[in-house]
């Protein structure tokens, strides 16, 4: 299975999943149709299915135009706001698409309807988990979001993480405020800086890497708990409390 990034807006990635079953690809979170149409034409591909992680427009805005040309299923969360969905899925549901078996993981926090798509080795997590960070908590609660991240932590370490935005460099700048003495984080931040200077993509990441550098997955590490407590004055060690403190810290600069 090969995964190709399609750039959209200023920093979005729409993912095209090629499974070698035919000339079709699975398109994940198409916020815009035009760059997808261009990529399909350049690569002589069609669309087999569309996967949707949540309702935000920068993940759904291109679906209607794409499905006008390509008659394909649109698989996403149970949310009537996403009128283009033809197959709503939920936690633990498994289905086969393009010769690949997929599992649905509900990951609320960024939004209440957020889901992620997993097949061994590959995680498409929308805005729940970023490299070095996570999405803003627009609709969920700290407990929901931290539980979603705990679910993703249980996946195999070699899982490749395909998130939907090129936020890595900014996320690592913040991560180093939380863990300034983390040598893996420091080294990776230098690598990402070089990649971005060359306008190179920093994704996918891996879960093992994120577990070593991402404070939003490392909320039970002493260094992260200490930083959260020092920043807020006093923080309980429960995952949701540490998570909320770090999230507020990042949101408020």
From TrEMBL:
InterPro entries registered for this protein in UniProt: Clx_II_MBL, Glyoxalase_II_hydrolase, HAGH_C, Hydroxyacylglutathione_Hdrlase, Metallo-B-lactamas, RibonucZ/Hydroxyglut_hydro
Enzyme class: hydrolase
Subunit organization: Monomer.
Any GO BP: methylglyoxal catabolic process to D-lactate via S-lactoyl-glutathione
GO molecular function: hydroxyacylglutathione hydrolase activity; metal ion binding
Family: Belongs to the metallo-beta-lactamase superfamily. Glyoxalase II family.
Role summary: Thiolesterase that catalyzes the hydrolysis of S-D-lactoyl-glutathione to form glutathione and D-lactic acid.
Catalytic activity: an S-(2-hydroxyacyl)glutathione + H2O = a 2-hydroxy carboxylate + glutathione + H(+)
Keywords: Hydrolase, Metal-binding, Zinc
Pathway(s) annotated for this protein in UniProt: Secondary metabolite metabolism; methylglyoxal degradation; (R)-lactate from methylglyoxal: step 2/2
EC number(s) from the headed UniProt entry: 3.1.2.6
UniProt domain Metallo-beta-lactamase: residue ranges: 11-165
Organism in which the protein naturally occurs: Idiomarina zobellii
Pfam families tied to this protein: HAGH_C, Lactamase_B
Amino-acid positions noted as binding Zn(2+) 2 in the UniProt annotation, renumbered to this chain: 58-59, 127, 165
HAMAP family: Glyoxalase_2 (MF_01374)
Gene3D superfamilies according to UniProt: Ribonuclease Z/Hydroxyacylglutathione hydrolase-like
Cofactor requirements of the protein: Zn(2+)
Protein's name in the database: Hydroxyacylglutathione hydrolase
NCBIfam families given in the database record: GSH_gloB (TIGR03413)
Annotated binding of Zn(2+) 1, by residue: 54, 56, 110, 127
